Amino acid sequence: MLEIYNLDVNLSYRGSQIKALDNLSFNVYPGEILGLVGESGAGKSMTGLAIIGLIEAPLSISRGKIIFNKQRIEQNANAFRGSKISMIFQDPLVSLNPLRTIGEQLVETIRTHIKFGRKEAIEYAKSLLEEVGIEQERFDAYPHTFSGGMRQRVVIALALAPKPSLVIADEPTTALDVSVQAQILELLKKLCRERETSIILITHDMGVIAETTDRVAVLYSGTLAEIGKTFEVLNYPQHPYTKGLIEATPRIDANSLNSKLYQIPGVMPDLKEIPVGCPFHKRCPRYIKKCVEIKPPLLNERAACWLLDNEKGLL
Amino acid sequence: MKHPFLESDLYYNFKRTPIAVLSFFVFLIIVIMAIFADIIAPHTPFEPLTLNLLNGFTPPMQANEFTGTIFLMGTDDQGRDLFSTILFGLRISLFVGLMAVFLAMVIGVTLGLIAGFVGGVVDTVIMRFADIQITFPSILVAMLIYGVAKGLLPPDLRYEMSITVLIISIGLSEWVPFARTVRGSTLVEKEKEYVISARMLGLSYPQIMVRHILPNILSPVLVIATITFALAIITEATLSFLGVGVPTTKPSLGTLIRIGQDFLFSGEWWILLFPALTLLLLALSINLFGDWLRDMLNPKLK
Amino acid sequence: MSFLLVNQLSRIFDLSEPWILRKIKGQQKKLLKAVDKVNFSIERGQTYALVGESGSGKSTIAMMVAGLIKPSSGFITIDGYNFFSPTIENNIKSSLRKSVQMIFQSPYASLNPRWRVGEVLKEPIKAFNLIESENGQKQRVCELLEQVGLSERDINKFPHEFSGGQRQRICIARSLASEPKLIICDEPTSALDVSVQAQVLNLLKDLQKQFSLTYLFISHDLAVVSTMANRIGVLKQGILVEEASPNKLFEKPEHDYTKMLLSAAPDIKNVSKIP
Ligand SMILES: Nc1ncnc2c1ncn2[C@@H]1O[C@H](COP(=O)(O)OP(=O)(O)O)[C@@H](O)[C@H]1O
Ligand code: SF4
Ligand SMILES: [Mg+2]
User: Fold this and answer.
1) Within a domain: residue C104?
2) Atom 16, ligand 1: which residue's CA is nearest?
């Protein structure tokens, strides 16, 4: 449904071009939840913004194709933004106007995208609220009277109003409490199932990835490190970075107190300091000579790591 | 090794903003001319002995019909070289403006810091007082303070103290913007964890305010200071123009404009035009630079 | 007696509008019980974790233990001394200050952006008059940097030159500078990435062993807590609803709220098995 080929996004900094996303290719299939995971600064949000066409100076798409429903949209996503593709941000207040009731905002969004009369739009808005778990009586309430989790539900209703086929959710639950987070993720899963909407779920939380997504893409320094079915990636990671990330994630377990967490040495480099060769090689416990010189492509349609080149995956 | 400032984003952006560079250099040139007025000025306009009344009303760049002397910007009624009087006038204007801003800044920053950090009743009292003062135009406040001070001073001191009184009245009329901004920033900073950890060391309030909070709220203060500087210079000019400012024997730009105004309709336009242009150029260059600085230091615009 | 003892601790915040406005609008006083009769204790060298959702009163308890907010009722003793005891002498208060330090959530807001790392670390040394000589102070700063995995070369850098994890290390070094006995960690890794979080948690564990530190560890993340705590208290709206060892809490949670938290917490173990 969505195909991305060799996408490069550049950041112009003091007259020179720095690669912020490097040769990114992946697909999103109808009705799936694709997780996009990585450390802050890895390029997760930028990928989302590129798809929805919100890349602005000093950033620019310098190469690659984004194909949505067989049409190229990398230079002109306006026709789809907010209708066929919509976005949910971390802070629900970004998407809500504090001075207008949620009902007005929903009706307005509906009527800009769908040819509905006022009555019909109100009906539809109420059914949307119902669907995201907000009582219809709150139709005329202002955003500030809602809790954080409820606001995020309203934002989800807004995002769903034009019946999009792809929703990009950028850390939608990071600002919320775990109990609310669980509800919101459950809601996203349900919507995905019932409406056949695809969701790109951007998060830094491996636990959320494990419990919510069908497939997962791991980003590191603007590069796709690994992609695959969530179950396979988490149980049999092929890229040393994914492996490190999984082992560094604490688990709820009474016995973990006496052991130490695995730690990946060092930190992800700044965009300006990404090394040549494999971007991960300075932190990789298993790097070989080739890693320092040549950047590995995605091998076996799974991981960008030279170890997969020998035999069939060494991890 | 390069100085870190030359590597900073501020300097990088400065180099690439022609208006910022232009306004900064115009201002710099004006300041340098004022500082070195003694050397640059071709005449010493306030030494009565060097003046020749025959030189009066010489138009700019024309030889005087009696003495044959040529004056760059012409002369006034008493034969004083306008270019030189402007240089010396600038000096007084800049001095008054600078000292007034400094005073306003010290008062505003101190009160703002205390209001923001201590909070409660202290905050309410300070900020309500600021609210009341801001409802009067600052020129009115300055005139009021000026009038009261003049009335209180013994007559023989009045004359000598007039510049000091002027500085104090402008300073006292401009502290509110400083206090408001500083209070706002202080409210934000004092909740930050680095302040809490300073409190955990048992440091006193003044120590925390001065050593921790103050350095972090200076950027907006700097912006307000530049804008207030232009404002103070204009206020001084206005007061002097109204005749309540600096004495005519030591004219500032405002005094010169007032003098020039008398001759506008008799055809000696230059006596008004050149001081007025100088004031305009000065205020404009400071304001343009201040605007750029504000855009640069405002995190919301980034 | 326990090293840290928290007894019937309560804190009420007055959220009402100023008196005059209240009278005009005819409103009652609005009071919020942020912490309500909380009891717990920590033995020396152990880690006690407080978990709960936002607004449950975790940070308020932390601030009271740190002596920065006065309890409305109840008391806290650290090594037998109470910050807010009316009879406390100044030198005891000062040594109490020295022995309780805190690490915060935000690696950005917890360091003064205008201070060099060296100055940041020297401040507690100077404030408590620990080392007189300029040279000795510098040596101590280098030692602290080393203990948290940074290097002597970092001494003249500003906070913005470091990554989030490194800044958190600087904060840890600052909290160690006064040779404290108790460190309050308020969500110390919530703002960090997983790989960096692991580094910081491991560092905290190492330091605890090395200096026999006692931790009051505050977090909303049960998985993080499970790697750190000897005992766990669950807070809900200011009330401590359950307290247990990790074993007990994760295997047989008693309170419904604890059960809800456990099931809601995303856990990497729970990857859906449908391949
Ligand atoms: N200074 C204060 N004034 C008023 N209310 C406060 C203050 N500090 C905290 N609160 C309130 O107390 C409750 C507990 O807050 P807090 O201890 O910060 O919770 P947590 O750290 O668990 O998120 C919250 O409802 C919060 O809004
Ligand atoms: S390519 Fe080399 S350096 Fe990169 S992850 Fe694989 S083994 Fe490590
Ligand atoms: Mg908190």
Assistant:
1) yes
2) C57
Q: Which residues of B touch C97 (CB under 8 A)?
A: 200-202
Residue A103, beta-bridge partner list: none
State the amino acid at position A190 in one-letter form.
K
At A168, the amino acid letter reads I
pLDDT tens-place string over residues B117-143: 998 889 999 999 999 988 888 788 888
Neighbours of A176 (CB within 10 A): 23
A175 interfaces chain C, CB cutoff of 8 Å: no
CB-CB neighbours of A178 under 10 Å: 21
A40 contacts chain C (CB < 8 A): yes
B254-271 mean pLDDT:
80
Q: How many domains does chain C have?
A: 1
- Cis (ω within 30 of 0) for the bond into B60? no
CA C173, CA C168: separation in Å to the nearest integer? 9
At residue B14, the pLDDT reads: 87
What is the separation of C-alpha B292 from the centre of its chain, rounded to a whole number of angstroms?
Answer: 18
Cβ separation of A256 and C222 shorter than 8 Å? no
Strands of the A215-220 sheet, one edge to the other: A85-88, A166-170, A198-203, A33-37, A215-220, A223-229
Return the pLDDT at C137: 95
| Per-residue pLDDT at C88 | 84
Q: Which of residues 42-101 of C touch B (CB under 8 A)?
A: 63, 66-68, 93-94, 97, 100-101
A251: nearest Cα among C271, C222, C215, C218: C222
Q: What share of chain A has pLDDT > 70, as a percent?
A: 97
Segment C208-217 shows an average pLDDT of 96
C244: CATH: 3.40.50.300
Q: Measuring from atom 26 of ligand 1, which residue has the nearest CA? A: C55
If one residue of C10, C59, C72 were mutated to test the ligand 1 pocket, choosing by the most ligand atoms within 8 A of its CB, it would be C59
Residues in CB range of B104: below 8 A, 6 or more apart: B170, B171, B172, B173, B174, B175, B178, B228, B232
Whether the pLDDT of residue B166 is over 70: the answer is: yes
For ligand 2, atom 3, name the residue with the nearest CA: A281
Nearest to C170 by CA among C157, C184, C183, C187: C157
Residue C107 CA, distance from chain mean position: 14
Q: Which residue ranges form the domains of chain A, and what is each CATH number?
A: 2-84+162-310 (3.40.50.300)
Q: Is position C275 within any domain?
A: no
Q: What range defines the domain where residue C161 resides? A: 4-270
- Compute the distance between CA of residue B49 and CA of residue B211 in angstroms, rounded to an integer: 54
